């Protein structure tokens, strides 16, 4: 396993996801506030949900990164790197909207407490947090801690995979926001 390439791939995916989500903050009010006909969330609510989910995932990522760095003192990192292979297929569905049933906890549902500028600024901080963790664990240490992820039965995943999951979660909702925008445009043409 080329751990450095793996980490770089996650950094690239993370940057692209956060940049793409960030562009949605510049959409017009009509697009941001459109309530889709299926009763789903508005774009603004989706953005808040992404922030909230990132918030809770980052708690686990922080704990995991600290434990991984402690484990580095006791475990054989070279052996972990040599024996690790990333199961891309296992994660693929996470980034696809509607690929599986996802019942999110209530604390990850948008409440409308934060305005768009606050959410945007907090998400920028979240991106930097993820980048900082990847830089901290730049030699493969993130493999040395696994935490259970119940979503889509992913099971025990390492800290890098948690960060990738966070990035994929954003991708999942980009599709949802695009669908909302398409419906808004379609309604304007009527």
Automatic annotation (TrEMBL):
Residues 29-177 form the DinB-like domain. It comes from the Bacteria. InterPro entries: DinB-like, DinB/YfiT-like. This is DinB family protein. It comes from Chryseobacterium endalhagicum.
């Amino acid at each position: 396993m080329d751990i450095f390439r793996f980490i770089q791939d996650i950094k690239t995916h993370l940057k692209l996801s956060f940049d793409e989500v960030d562009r949605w903050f510049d959409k017009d009010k009509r697009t941001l506030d459109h309530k889709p006909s299926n009763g789903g969330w508005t774009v603004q609510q989706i953005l808040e949900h992404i922030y909230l989910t990132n918030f809770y995932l980052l708690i686990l990522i922080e704990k995991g990164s600290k434990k991984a760095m402690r484990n580095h003192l006791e475990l054989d990192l070279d052996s972990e790197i040599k024996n690790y292979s990333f199961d891309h297929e296992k994660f693929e569905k996470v980034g696809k909207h509607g690929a599986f049933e996802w019942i999110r906890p209530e604390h990850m549902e948008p409440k409308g407490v934060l305005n768009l500028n606050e959410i945007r600024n907090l998400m920028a901080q979240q991106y930097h947090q993820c980048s900082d963790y990847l830089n901290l664990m730049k030699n493969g240490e993130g493999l040395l801690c696994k935490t259970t992820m119940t979503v889509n039965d992913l099971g025990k995943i390492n800290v890098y995979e948690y960060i990738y999951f966070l990035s994929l979660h954003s991708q999942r909702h980009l599709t949802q926001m695009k669908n909302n925008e398409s419906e808004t445009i379609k309604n304007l043409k009527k």
